[in-house]
Amino acid sequence: MKKKKRYIDVIIICLIFYGIFGGEMIKRTYRKGMEIMALSETNHFALDISGIIPFQIPSNIRVLISATDYVTKYHQNICLGSTDGMIVEKNGEVYRCLANEQVTFSTDELKEGKVKISNVNENGMITVYSIFRGEENPSYFGDMELNFTEEGIVMINEVELEKYLYLVIPSEMPLSYESEALKAQAVCARTYAVAKIQNGLDEIYFCHLDDSVSSQVYANQPLQEGSVKAVDETSGVILLDGKNIGTTYYFSTSCGILSKPEDIWIKEKEQELVEALATAQNENQQVENNLKSLLENVEGLEQEYPYFRWKVKIPYEILESKAGVGNIKNIYVSQRGESGVAKVLTIEGETGEAHYIGEYDIRSVLSPEGFDLTKHNNEINKSMSLLPSGYFYGIMEEDGYMIYGGGYGHGAGMSQNGANELAKQGYSYAEILKYYFKEQNLMRIYR
Predict the structure, then answer these.
(1) Is residue 131 located within the same domain as residue 183?
(2) pLDDT of residue 225
(3) Looking at the domain assignment, is residue 48 inside a domain?
């Protein structure tokens, strides 16, 4: 009888404890409509309300390190060193390099097999003296793996995911930005990286991603306190789309409207369809008119940023040399996304038509490099290799194609400058992410 009473007493105490603390704990996992799900302490899977999400917690990520200026993935010589010293594993042999000793590896040496280099100090960094990022030699956490190929040496940095993010954040967003914007950037970058890990290793380079704009820019700027803080304060937090890892594209500046990813990155199988529709010049005139009205309005969330609005004129002879259709008769955006972003640009000439499909190709053919691109703050930029964005309309003038546009970058996902402005207004990082990724939820998959 006493034993049964003891069980009842324990149950009552547990219920009281839950009544006092449990509700508050639950409240703290939600932030104004942006769910932050509970963390499983008992296994290596993240939990959703309805059960286990079918992916494992990532640990390390493998990043391909490009040469200086990202011109190639291959290196002819690689020179490494560390203030703590390094451990080198080569052909089954292990030897230690002294602190500050620089060691060079050439393609001839590596023909015999791959080399792995580790820092003596687990939290130390290996410096690559044979490449530059800006005016500095970049340094990396984790291990370096060097593999020989006929084209040159492939260098892979295998590193803990959170330490990888320490060097992504300062490379992708100015650390002068608000702390909540930096945290939002950290979650976007982590989500992107987790998705790459889940996709598995590249079959050619055996990496998850590279260190360039093709993936996420990594270690282009040295380690800084603000980026470490943003990563640590969001440790393990990613975005989920249902039970799938979220899609977290981001870009510099919005003109005031966002696009669906499918309007930016047009699938290969859709290209023929889009090109066939490109002859219907007036089909999306209303969408273009809406975009014109938007661009003519010079007020908005990001109006203080230089690429909020911009204009440039491209001479016809430049476009004629690229299009190869003779003297130009007409230039127009023949297909737009719902947002107004250009999907197909048509250039008509005396000898035929040229179609440019997808915002990147369009921004390339309309490159303003060498011409006066006037920014929103009236500053001039003459060195841009791409048109700032695909949000523009053009006017055929006597001496060239006059382009009026807004924004900088592809325009899908989170605007980094917009995130900073929202943070200035008091938005938390969770609220910023909800603003840009309305259908996705936050989840902490590890601490």
Answers:
(1) yes
(2) 95
(3) no
Domain count for the chain: 2
pLDDT tens readout for residues 169-186: 999 999 999 999 999 999
Pair 222, 305 in one domain: no
Q: Are residues 230 and 282 in the same domain?
A: no
Q: What is the rounded CA–CA span in Å between residue 10 and residue 59? A: 39
CA dist 30 and 24 (Å) reads 11
pTM: 0.86
Assess if residue 164 is contained within a domain. Answer: yes
Distance separating alpha carbons of residues 230 and 28, to the nearest angstrom: 19
Shared domain check, 127 and 84: yes
Answer yes or no: is 20 within a domain: no
pLDDT tens-digit map of 274-287: 766 655 555 678 89
- 366 and 343 both lie in a single domain: yes
Mean pLDDT of the chain: 87
Decide if 387 is inside a domain.
yes
Domain of 274 in residue numbering reads as: 261-405
Report the distance separating Cα 7 and Cα 4, nearest Å: 5
Same-domain pairing of 394 and 353: yes
The verdict on 164 and 213 lying in the same domain is yes
Query: Which of 246, 245, 235, 248 lies closest to 53 in space, CA to CA?
Result: 245
The two three-digit tokens of residue 296, written as one number = 């003519």
CA atoms within 13 A on the CB side of 387: 31
